Amino acid sequence: MKALGLSDVHLQPLDLVPQWTPTNWEVQMTAGGKTITLDSAQPAYDANALPPGGVERDAVYVGLGTEADFMGRDVKGKAVFTYSMQGLRNEGAIRRADSNGAAVIFDVSMLPGNMRYQAYPSGTKAPSFVLGDNDGIAARAMIAAAKNGPAPKVKVTLDIQHIPNLKTSLVWGTLPGSTDETIYVTAHKDGWFEAAGDNAGGVASMLGLAEYYAKIPQAQRRRTLVFIGLDGHHNGQGGNVGARWLTENKAKFFAKTALMINDEHPSTIATQSRPRYYPGNEIAWANTYMPLEWYAGGKQRPELQAIAWKAFKEFGVSLELDPSPTPPASDLGSFFRYLPGIDASEYHNYFHTDWETPEAVPWTGLEASTRAFAKIIDEVNKLPLSTFQRPEEPAPAPRTPPPPSPTAGGKQ
Ligand SMILES: [Zn+2]
Fold first, then answer.
1. Å from CA of 265 to ligand 1 middle
2. Overall average pLDDT of the 176-182 stretch
3. Which residues surround ligand 1, an ion (CB under 5 A)?
4. 297 C-alpha to center of ligand 1: Å?
5. Does the predicted model carry a pTM greater than 0.70?
6. HEC states along 330-363?
7. Ligand 1 centroid vs 360 CA: distance in angstroms?
8. Is the predicted pLDDT of residue 411 greater than 80, yes or no?
9. Given this model, what pLDDT does residue 399 score?
10. How far is CA 386 from CA 95, 272, 340, 391, in A?
11. pLDDT tens-place string over residues 356-369
């Protein structure tokens, strides 16, 4: 930020709750004298540890894990295998297995290959793991082959530490404008695996905007631009410590804010899982990027929605036809009730997986999204604060959260 010419570059340290850290785990399955290792197993975060040395349990198959799938199956104390993938309905299989007494749960993501997927907390007593398709199919084949004998044994270890006294931080830098009115651009800094799409892409796009506006004379920048690297949302129960800190200080930061652009997953290669008539069993890549789920201030800010739609169209950004009524599932969720916010993000096949590498983040999409964001900033700067500011929206009444489905449900 300093190298780009931003001023007031500031680190705001924040305390973290003890951080869930899996230090060691292994999953092996044995039947008929044969043992396989399920390498892709990835524990859902906040999963409970297993006893030291692990457990050994009988494998049981429950298909999609619906109530119908569980009928007639005894899963108590067992290693339960359930199958799903991005695009299927969330059947609540993991919660169902847990409430039926499973000892450990394997949720197979049936997307082609053997991806590791980092799931959101499953909220279950039994630890749950996501498995890749190759491992899940091998496990299923072993269960099927043992139909006339004893069930395969699954040996699982999972050691967890909760590391105390860690800190994270916000980082921000400012480009003063010709007024004290503000526009914010945010991008979260945390991520899983290489995190190329979620959210290195967003950080790159934010820095691209900073670089661009730093070259424009201050007198020609109507509003002060503030760029914030957010700590993110994977830092434990409650998460979002940076967004909460900003909200606690909202009178100081956001009294005269015309716009917040949250730059999160703005470009990912367009993929199809097993296209019809396609040879093989693969995720096929296209020569373009995924359409973005977008939000632009909601129904009560039709001007902002129109500006965003036009800008995305002008720069060829691939978009869902309809805007989301609220931000899709991003850090803007902490701000949109009291700030005019823009968000345009993607959450498809590679999201939260170890296949989310730089190759899966096309520069064409980054360029298009970033140029559209700049256009939105310029258009918003032509209009007064009153066009965008609205009274704070009430938070919806708390509701019972839907059962988690690590492979099909979670976002961010
Ligand atoms: Zn993200």
1. 6
2. 97
3. 198-199, 264
4. 19
5. yes
6. CHHHHCCCCCCEEEEECCCCCCCECCCCHHHCCH
7. 15
8. no
9. 60
10. 46, 43, 11, 11
11. 999 999 999 999 99
